[in-house]
């Protein structure tokens, strides 16, 4: 089994996958932990706070899994078509950040 890529790469891929496949109007994703695999063969995922239309949602996201909404968090509304094409701010678990267009 090959080792996972660095955490920051996995978090970036997870944020982009969440935006591109599930919520194109996400404004910010802030990772609250490094992330891990839930067990042998399980996909990698991390807890994060996703901000959509100014509302924070507790999520578990990964580059290969659909989002899980946790902590009694509601599910964000479906994005209108076409999406707004917002810039995405990603705040990594190490405190660094970047803005992705």
Q: Largest sheet at a glance? A: 7 strands, mixed
Shape: globular
Termini distance?
Answer: 34 Å
* DSSP strand tally: 7
- Structural classification: mainly beta
- Share of helix, binned: 10-25%
Order of helices and strands: HEEEEEEE
Helical element count? Answer: 1
Poorly predicted runs = none
The average pLDDT score comes to 89
Strand content: 35-45%
Return Rg in Å: 13 Å
Keywords:
1 helix; mainly beta; 101 residues
Would you kindly provide a brief summary of this structure?
The chain has 101 residues and is mainly β. It is built from 1 helix and 7 strands; from the N terminus they run H-E-E-E-E-E-E-E.
List the topology elements:
Blueprint: H1 7-21, E1 26-31, E2 36-37, E3 44-52, E4 55-62, E5 65-69, E6 88-91, E7 97-100
Parallel strand pairs: 1-6
Antiparallel strand pairs: 1-3, 2-3, 3-4, 4-5, 6-7
Task: Characterise this structure.
The protein is built from 1 helix and 7 strands, in the order H-E-E-E-E-E-E-E. The chain is mainly β and 101 residues long. It is globular and about 40 Å long. It has one helix at 7-21; strands spanning 26-31, 36-37, 44-52, 55-62, 65-69, 88-91, 97-100.
């Amino acid at each position: 089994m090959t080792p996972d890529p660095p955490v920051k790469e996995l978090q970036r891929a997870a944020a982009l996958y969440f935006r591109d496949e599930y919520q194109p109007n996400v404004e910010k994703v802030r990772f609250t932990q490094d992330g891990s695999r839930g067990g042998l063969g399980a996909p990698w995922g991390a807890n994060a706070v996703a901000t959509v239309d100014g509302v924070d949602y507790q999520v578990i996201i990964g580059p290969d899994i659909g989002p899980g909404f946790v902590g009694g968090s509601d599910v964000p509304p479906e994005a209108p078509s076409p999406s707004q094409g917002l810039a995405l701010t990603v705040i990594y678990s190490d405190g660094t950040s970047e803005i992705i267009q």
